[in-house]
Amino acid sequence: MPAKCTHAARTALLVLCTLISVGAWADCRDTVPAPQLSGKGALCLFGFCLYDAQLWSAELPPSYDAPFALEVTYRRAVERSRLIETAIDEIRRLQSPVPPDDTLAQWQRAMTPAFPDVKPGDTLCGVYLPGRGARFYANGQLTTEVNDPAFARAFFDIWLAPGTRAPSLRRHLLGKSR
C-alpha cells in the first residue's frame, strides 16, 4: 500500500464513503431499468390520509412481467406490527386460494426486517423482481430482499389487484385515472 495518497484519491474515497453512508446506492428505483412514473395517488379513507404512493415501472402500462417500484410516503405514524398485520390480512383476503397458515407465518417473518415503525415523512419502497421476489427499502436504505415470487405477487396485489380496498388509488398508480 502506498504511503501517500494523492489529493484526487483521497477526494474520491471521501465521496465514495459519503455516497455509501447516505444510501445513494440504495435508491429503490435503481433496480428498475429506465424507471418511468406510471402513476401516483393518496390513500385517504373518510378524510383521513395515511400515505402518498408512486408506482415506477420499466414498462408502461406496468405488469408483473417487468420490474417495478412502489414508493409509499407516510403522512401518519404507523407501527411496524400494524403494517405487517394489515399486509397479511389483505393477502389473506385477496388470494384465492388463501395461502396456508404456515406460508402466511413465513411471509410475516419475511416482512419483519422490511418495515420499521414509520412516522410522517418516512418512505417505504418495495421493488417487484419478476421470477425472483421483492426488495424493500426504508428511507432509501435497503432493509431486506425476499426471494419468493409467490410472496412478491401476493404482496403487490394489495395495491394492484382488481379487488384492492383502494380502487381509486389502484387506477391512479396504473395511470388509468383519466
Automatic annotation (TrEMBL):
Name the source's superkingdom. Bacteria
Q: Which residues form the signal peptide?
A: 1-26
Q: Where is the Chalcone isomerase domain?
A: 68-175
Instruction: Print the keywords alphabetically.
Output: Signal
The record's annotation in Pfam families points to:
Chalcone_3 (PF16036)
Protein name per UniProt? Chalcone isomerase domain-containing protein
UniProt organism field: Ralstonia edaphi
